[in-house]
Each structure stands twice: as structure tokens, then as C-alpha cells.
Amino acid sequence: MKVLVVGANGQIGKHLMSDIAESEQLNGKAMIRKTEQKPYFEELGVETAIVDLEDDTEAIAKAAEDVEAVVFTAGSGPNTGKDKTIMIDLDGAVKTIKAAEKAGVKRFVMISSFDTTREAIQEAPENFAPYVAAKHYADEWLKSTNLDYTIIHPGGLTNDEGTGKVQAAAEVERGYVPREDVAAVIAASLENDATIGKEFQVVSGEQSVKDAVKSL
């Protein structure tokens, strides 16, 4: 399965591209914003497409023309304002969903926030609420489509070395999880059709990634 990773140059994205490069079932294509980001992926032997998420839907769809799955793991980051949150985490996500539909891609994996319920928006700190709201509506948009979606809600992200062990379920107690392990969960979800139509939270735990994903 050839996978377009949107946000491939991000921290989760880079781990995911490495996992895909080592997978026997997956083949990766990195969507990146800048030409100077290409060498990292060329060293992995990964194809690249240079597209900005603020470009139009057609540009994203063109990058997705030759793939069978799309992973959205892009994010505006914690130091941007509400404008970038709207343009990347909401509009960028929706454009990517529309682009997948336009390109005839059925499989879509969304990396969301840990809790994107209506209640979470109301309870979020003022500076975090716009991000939760953006993720909430992007998730809802994806669920309203006919795409074979999976929505992953990771806990607090860390740069610790991955353990290869997580806890994954519709609801888990809030906790932390290394970005490296989130990437492994994405790859395992792509390799397991039983995750289609499901959304789940994931934090560090005691099950191997593959067993945790298989148990969903």
C-alpha cells in the first residue's frame, strides 16, 4: 500500500516515514513544504511531493493521485496563533480529506488530539480551545465522508525513545506517549483493516503496538 504522509517533516511524520521504509506492506510518499527538506527523505529512499497545506485542494489531490492511503499528521504547532490553527489544523485537514476523495483514495488516517469532544472544547484553557475545536470539526468532517477512516487520539506527546508498548482503546486514562510509538501505531493501523471506521485514544502501556491495535 502506497501512503501519502501529510506533515511528513514533522516529528511524528519523520518517525512514520522511517517505519514505512522498513515495512514490507507499506510504501511511503512524503508531502513536504520545502525543497530543502527533500534530502532527508531521499536518504530513506522515499518519494516526495512539495505542497503547502495552504495551497488549494487540487495541489494536494495531485500529490495523492498515485497512492492508496493518506495520513494526516500535520499541525500548526504550539507557538502559532489562532489563524494558523484554523488554516492548518482545520482547513488544511478538510482540504486533505477532500483531496483524497478527489484523487479516489479511500483509506485515510487522521492524527487528532487526545480528546476532541464538545465537552473538551468547553473545558480547554482559552489558548488551547481553538486547537481542540479545529480538531473536533476536522474529525467530524472525516466521519461524515465515505472514506475508510481511522482517527487516532494520542495522549501527551513526548520525544522519549519509543518503548513499542501502548494502551489503545476508545477511551483510556489520560497519559503520555512517545511520538515514535504513535508513528508505530499509525503504521500498524494502516496494516490492519480492522481499524477502519474506528477512532481510539492511545497512551503508553503494556501491550505491544501490534497487539494493542489488533485488540481494538
Please, could you describe this protein's structure?
With 216 residues, the chain is of the alpha/beta class. It is built from eight helices and eleven strands. It has a single domain (2-214), classed as Rossmann fold. It has helices at 11-22, 38-43, 57-63, 82-103, 118-123, 129-143, 179-190, 209-214, and strands at residues 2-6, 27-32, 47-50, 69-72, 107-111, 148-154, 156-158, 165-169, 176-178, 198-204, 207-208. The strands form two sheets. The chain has a nine-stranded mixed β-sheet, sandwiched between helices. It has a two-stranded parallel sheet with strand order 7-9. The longest helix has 22 residues, at 82-103.
Run of helices and strands: EHEHEHEHEHHEEEEHEEH
Q: How do the strands of the widest beta sheet line up side by side?
A: 3-2-1-4-5-6-10-8-11
Number of separate helices: 8
Q: What's the oligomerization state?
A: single chain
Q: Could you name the CATH class?
A: Alpha Beta
Distance between the termini: 21 Å
CATH architect. name: 3-Layer(aba) Sandwich
Tell me the helix content.
25-40%
Count of DSSP strands: 11
Q: What keywords describe this structure?
A:
NAD(P)-bd_dom, single chain, Rossmann fold, globular, NAD(P)-bd_dom_sf, alpha/beta, Putative NAD(P)-binding protein, 9-stranded mixed β-sheet
